Amino acid sequence: MSNIYVVVEHFKGKVEDITFEMLGKAKELGDVTAVLIGNKDLASELGAASKVITVDAPELAEFNPEAYLKTVSEVVSNGNADMVMVGNTSMGMDIAAGLSVSQDMPLIAYASDMGTDSVTSQLYGGKVNVESAVSGKCIVSVLPGSFPGDAGKVDGSPAVEEAAAPDLSEVKVKFRKLIEPEGGDVDITTQDVLVSAGRGIQSDENIPMVEELAAKLGGAVSCSRPIVDNKWLGKTRQVGKSGLKVKPKLYLTLGISGAPEHIEGMKEADLIIAVNTDPNAPIFDYAHYGCTADLFDLIPALSSKL
Amino acid sequence: MNIVVPIKQVPDLVEELEIDGSGKDLNREWLKYKINEFDDHALEEALLYKEANGGTVTAIVLDSDGIDKVLHAAAAKGADKVVKIMGDFGSAVSSHAAGKAMADAIQAMGFDMVMTGVQAVDDRDGQLAGIIANHLNTPNINVVTGVTKDGDNLVVQKEYGGGVVAEFEVSTPVVIGVQAARETPRYIPVAKIRKASRGINIEEVSGSTDGNAGSEVSRMFKPEGGQGAEMLGDDAEAAAARIIEILNEKGIK
Ligand SMILES: Cc1cc2nc3c(=O)[nH]c(=O)nc-3n(C[C@H](O)[C@H](O)[C@H](O)COP(=O)(O)OP(=O)(O)OC[C@H]3O[C@@H](n4cnc5c(N)ncnc54)[C@H](O)[C@@H]3O)c2cc1C
Ligand SMILES: Nc1ncnc2c1ncn2[C@@H]1O[C@H](COP(=O)(O)O)[C@@H](O)[C@H]1O
After folding, report:
1. What is the Cα–Cα distance from A63 to A22, expressed in whole angstroms?
2. Is the pLDDT of residue A298 over 60?
3. Which of A207, B42, B152, B232 is least buried, going by the fewest C-beta atoms within 10 A?
4. CB-based burial label for B106 (10 Å; 0-12, 13-18, 19+)
5. Which numbered ligand comes closest to the C-alpha of A295?
6. What is the pTM of this model?
């Protein structure tokens, strides 16, 4: 029986979905130990694990990249994990690679499926899957949304073991504050219809065209990350890993490739229609309907019929 | 403040990717490469920091085909020094091997801050920044969208999900994985880069090649492309008509 450690991710007193997704999968693979740092009260929610190791210290009250990495490394080095699961999330990205070096354990990133001797990753923006053979111990960073969370949300009373924190007096990173997003003009998480623009839109001059189509469909405009990084639309319109999670009745994408970080935010939409000139774009693996027309032809064609 | 920016090229995803005969790697013969977009952001953030607070920016790469022009572009944008690590790294170098070689070279040249892209589309064995940081024994913060100076310390903004940003304070030395620079990366026309390239001296250092991923690729395959979606073709008029029908059927419009 393998020993699987799951690094619990929590934020503002709530266990994050990725944790339950990992716990559910871990249970299929072996005996599960949850590693819970910074908020031991959450142990009662981790019924899918047979054991919870908690570590608390004032420096761990808020997520801290350096202090959390040190603490996870200490727990793993004192334990007997065959596999360590870390979310491929903003927090997990501060842990997985450093842990791999400090513990001399191989790391497989962007993992979307795993067994005890093979791990599948999504690479090249979701265009290629790669299977890695693993022998012996390993760390996997797990793509959010790869497994159902329900399997990890089960009752149970795991044994709780309180471990001492490592010496954190030398930690250089200090948490200062959280900056909440400013409320936008539109809350894309409550819209029934989203027309979502990606890098294929080419220029901010083309945004009004998308806005017009969205208005005709009775919805709002959302977008992928590069559109926000280019400052063509505000951050409140971004869908995905570091943006918002949306579940509209219709999600129409225009020039979005379907990178895993975008898919994470929209794959639960009721109806997904994707427009992309590249027939191999990963977005078509998640869409219900796909169209390989040029978006600059499709938008007017659609607009004129509405 | 000496800022070192590790940069790499990745396959351009605009092109179709083919799997080679071994079934374990991309067919790299005709691959078109481009700078990892997050490294481009890291370089921009490093240049912005230097322009505001002084210091030097050094771009560093592992030797590979066509990499010189990446260094020429970095220099044309404002990097003070460009360095190439020589060694037989192969075309599909792992993050662990690259990270070890980078860390050894960076250690040897001295640094205050390392800024590199938060991730790349091909880092099967993990992100470079965390690997480099652990070899250099420094703190590491990733998914960063801005680094500014406050007294002797750095203020680092890190993105969480849902648009929430966490602000941290840290002293140097530190390794930062940049998600997005505060400004859109500056654009330098290729003609200008070509012109600038004549005056640029690429410093070559020898690299360690003892890092490795610790795992092997057993199979590479394409996801079942297009199977999820019912395809409506490439004719805009016909597809638009069909989309309207679908929306009507579903009662959306
Ligand atoms: C930590 C982290 C968090 C991230 N968070 C997010 C996030 O929250 N949201 C997000 O979206 N991304 C996020 N990303 C970025 C993500 O990795 C991708 O870079 C991004 O999703 C790509 O956006 P895109 O699909 O618009 O652009 P691209 O991948 O460049 O795709 C553009 C597509 O447009 C198509 N196209 C071009 N011209 C036309 C045309 N005329 N007609 C039709 N189609 C056309 C092309 O074929 C291509 O497929 C994150 C990355 C990291 C590292
Ligand atoms: N403005 C630029 N900024 C950054 N890198 C560039 C720029 N122009 C060219 N390059 C580099 O040169 C490579 C080839 O450029 P190109 O021939 O324009 O596709 C790119 O992949 C980049 O690595």
Report:
1. 19
2. yes
3. B152
4. buried
5. 1
6. 0.93
